[in-house]
């Protein structure tokens, strides 16, 4: 990861020094070991959602194709937040292109949401106040673009409050690994953990996506 971008990403509003629980969580995110198909880097974090924020963006890569991409933001408010019911919050966006027939499945939104909660549960994580949306969109091309095939995309937006451990710090690295499990599943990659062979995955994407 780019250290300059990391420094910019972790500063709170006004450049205040981040408190120890937040610093510990950020270091855990930086040190997490992820599957090689997922490329992760720090990116500037939103500055108005919480006093302290750190953001990562990731892509699931297969050769020259991006099979899925997303963003994960760690928020921290030392004073606590009534809506979060805690001092930390994780916010995410995950996107992937789908085959049209898969996008037409009426159960797809429920299945995608279960992938998120299942990824957290599979690693034994505690969390609260989950919320989010699953959106599917289709694009059809006309005129000068009529030769392009129709395209469909799934988008998962979600947030949850991670359980806090010793010192009031969440297990940020494991939450990141769970999020990457979700990215891999949406991208159609086979599961890596033993016993996960029965997990339903999306079919291989039709072609490369722009990053």
Radius of gyration: 18 Å
Number of strands: 6
Low-confidence stretches: 1-14, 194-211
Structural class by secondary-structure content: alpha+beta
Account of the 3D structure:
It is a single chain. By secondary structure, the protein is α+β, with helices and mostly antiparallel strands. It is 26% helix and 34% strand. The protein has one domain. It contains five helices and six strands; from the N terminus they run ααββββααββα. The protein has a six-stranded antiparallel sheet with strand order 1-2-3-4-6-5. A hairpin with an 8-residue loop joins β1 and β2. α4 runs antiparallel to α5. The two termini are 18 Å apart.
Summarize the structure.
With 211 residues, the chain is of the alpha+beta class. It is built from 5 helices and 6 strands, in the order ααββββααββα. Helix 4 packs antiparallel against helix 5 (172-187).
What descriptive keywords fit this protein?
211 residues; alpha+beta; disordered N terminus
């Amino acid at each position: 990861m780019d250290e300059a971008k990391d420094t910019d990403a972790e500063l709170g509003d006004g450049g205040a020094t981040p408190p120890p629980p937040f610093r510990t969580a950020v270091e855990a995110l930086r040190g997490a070991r992820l599957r090689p198909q997922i490329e992760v880097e720090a990116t500037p974090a939103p500055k108005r959602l919480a006093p302290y924020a750190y953001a990562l963006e990731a892509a699931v890569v297969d050769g020259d194709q991006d099979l899925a991409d997303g963003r994960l933001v760690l928020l921290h408010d030392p004073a606590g937040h009534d809506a979060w019911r805690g001092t930390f919050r994780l916010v995410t966006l995950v996107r992937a292109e789908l085959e049209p027939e898969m996008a037409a499945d009426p159960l797809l939104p429920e299945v995608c949401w279960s992938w998120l909660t299942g990824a957290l549960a599979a690693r034994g994580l505690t969390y609260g106040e989950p919320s989010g949306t699953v959106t599917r969109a289709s694009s059809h091309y006309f005129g000068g673009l009529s030769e392009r095939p129709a395209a469909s995309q799934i988008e998962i937006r979600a947030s949850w409050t991670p359980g806090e451990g010793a010192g009031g710090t969440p297990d940020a690295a494991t939450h990141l690994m769970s999020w990457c499990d979700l990215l891999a599943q949406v991208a159609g990659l086979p599961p890596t953990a033993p016993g996960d062979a029965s997990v339903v995955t999306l079919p291989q994407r039709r072609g490369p996506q722009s990053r």
